[in-house]
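Task: sequence design from structure.
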């Protein structure tokens, strides 16, 4: 395994930007070739440049996530008399730059005003002082406390989302019933379900990609940390070096290694597969009973919003049962943005309660506002019930000195490419040591 250097993981993250576009939006990367980057040729007198991912899927399919966000942007345009110019990016394949790579380049060079940020870019740009403090916006008083905690860097609220992104396991309930299986709660039960599927001719029980396998890790690593009543003290111990991230992560990595060794996950395929694109056909055809995705994928036909079987979205297996995983994304404003004042005003409107009500009702998602609740589709009720009970883990937390989502994603890729669990744990130790030695 390669030797990890300080900063190797910064600017990398899995695809979690379901808060603005659905599907494989942020899971894709690429360079700034004109075929991938859509620019605004002409600027109006008052313009706000928004950089975000662009969906790569069936152009004729209805994308409710995009429609919902457009509605809120139009509210801001009409009220403020500005034009929001979309600048977007997607990748051709896994060999291109990631969306995060391009976001970092653009934000560091003040190329846009508003940015839709993944957890790792949010943390990196926040630490570099490249993002404005948003705590003074009127809309922030309505945010859930978890949003403020997860998106605060060095005492500054640097990003606000339009939805709380929750990840879960999308399961074909009909196949579970066919083989007399209950939906799994624990890692042991999950392995048993995979065994039964495999022995009954299902070649690969779990459809995976190169972005989201870290969700299994987080569910097992942090179930007790976030739900055991001692969260602040445990995070403080990690930040001081008293405890090691590798000790938390090891059980999840051992679990993934067992899934690979038993052939329940195709590691070689997963290592080069974009989110949803590779596993979706077999899942919809009833050939693969289990995939992982985010909440919004259950609402759109470009992902899993229309199946010929009963689908449910449940939490990942953990010691505390089915566990939702919630990374935080959000909109940030560049500290040296050319149109900073208008960008802040636009953001304040699109994350206001009245805009979030429209967004949440259209897209049927969890709102970042504590004042808004929306009924979800039946498939999402198991996941939603756990979240409403306050049972979940964070896949990203700016209060941790080691960035979680992007780093874990990359180390999981090393496992997929043949690294040992011990080598992966050494990578976490090196990241933690580097974080503790920061000036």
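Answer:
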């Amino acid at each position: 395994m390669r030797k990890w250097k300080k900063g190797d993981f910064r600017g990398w993250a899995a695809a979690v930007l379901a808060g603005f576009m659905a599907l494989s939006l942020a899971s894709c990367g690429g360079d700034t070739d004109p075929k991938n980057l859509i620019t605004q040729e002409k600027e109006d007198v008052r313009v706000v440049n928004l950089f975000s991912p662009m969906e790569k899927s069936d152009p004729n399919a209805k994308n409710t996530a995009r429609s919902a966000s457009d509605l809120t942007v139009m509210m801001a345009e009409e009220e403020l008399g500005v034009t929001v110019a979309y600048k977007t990016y997607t990748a051709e394949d896994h060999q291109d730059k990631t969306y995060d790579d391009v976001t970092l380049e653009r934000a560091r060079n003040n190329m846009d005003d508003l940015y839709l940020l993944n957890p790792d870019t949010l943390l990196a740009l926040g630490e570099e002082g490249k993002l404005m403090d948003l705590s003074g916006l009127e809309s922030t008083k309505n945010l859930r406390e978890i949003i403020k905690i997860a998106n605060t860097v060095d005492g500054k609220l640097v990003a606000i989302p339009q939805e709380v992104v929750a990840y879960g396991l999308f399961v074909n309930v009909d196949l579970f019933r066919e083989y007399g299986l209950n939906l799994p709660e624990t890692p042991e039960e999950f392995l048993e379900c995979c065994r039964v599927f495999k022995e009954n001719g299902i070649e690969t029980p779990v459809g995976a990609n190169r972005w989201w396998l870290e969700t299994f890790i987080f569910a097992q690593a942090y179930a007790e940390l976030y739900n055991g009543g001692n969260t602040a003290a445990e995070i403080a111990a990690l930040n001081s070096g008293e405890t090691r991230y590798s000790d938390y992560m090891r059980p999840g990595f051992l679990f993934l290694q067992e899934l690979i060794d038993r052939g329940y996950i195709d590691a070689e395929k997963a290592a080069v597969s974009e989110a949803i694109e590779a596993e979706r056909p077999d899942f919809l055809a009833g050939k693969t009973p289990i995939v992982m995705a985010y909440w919004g994928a259950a609402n759109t036909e470009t992902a899993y919003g229309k199946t010929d079987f009963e689908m449910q979205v449940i939490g990942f297996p953990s010691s505390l049962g089915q566990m939702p995983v919630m990374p935080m994304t959000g909109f940030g404003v560049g500290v040296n943005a050319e149109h900073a004042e208008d960008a802040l005003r636009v953001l304040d409107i699109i994350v206001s309660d009245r805009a979030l009500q429209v967004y949440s009702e259209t897209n049927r998602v969890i709102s970042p506002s504590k004042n808004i609740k929306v009924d979800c589709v039946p498939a999402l009720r198991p996941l939603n019930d756990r979240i409403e009970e306050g049972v979940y883990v964070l896949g990203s937390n700016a209060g941790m000195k080691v960035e979680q989502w992007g780093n874990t994603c990359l180390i999981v890729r090393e496992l997929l490419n043949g690294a040992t669990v011990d080598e992966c744990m050494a990578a976490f130790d090196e990241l933690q040591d580097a974080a503790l030695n920061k000036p």
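The CA atoms of residues 7 and 431 lie 8 Å apart.
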